[in-house]
Amino acid sequence: MAFGIDRQELARWKEAVERGEIAYITHFWLDPRFPGVTSVTKVGCSDLGRLSRWCLDNGLSPAYIHRRDRYPHFDLIGAKQAEILRREGLFGQLERFVERRSR
Known about the structure:
Blueprint: E1 2-3, H1 7-18, E2 23-29, E3 39-44, H2 48-57, E4 73-76, H3 78-87, H4 91-98
Antiparallel strand pairs: 1-2, 2-3, 3-4
Helix pairs in contact: 3-4
Organism: Saccharibacillus alkalitolerans
Protein name: YneQ
């Protein structure tokens, strides 16, 4: 279940994905398969070659790209999520969804 973002944020992410950009959106997320994880960052891009290269450049396996989705994306969680958000300068998403849980 996703929550914590508005329609405009989601629309901007979808538009960027459709343009073939590497786009990031973070939201609160609960999944019983991942106890203690409260957020996910979806890294999307309609250009699967570009998204696969992004995964490899970040030490991640492209095998985990959600390809059948209309908006292909890789789900980032945990320490790698925080590391990449910091490196990309996405401090708003980091503070709003990831570091909030440690306060």
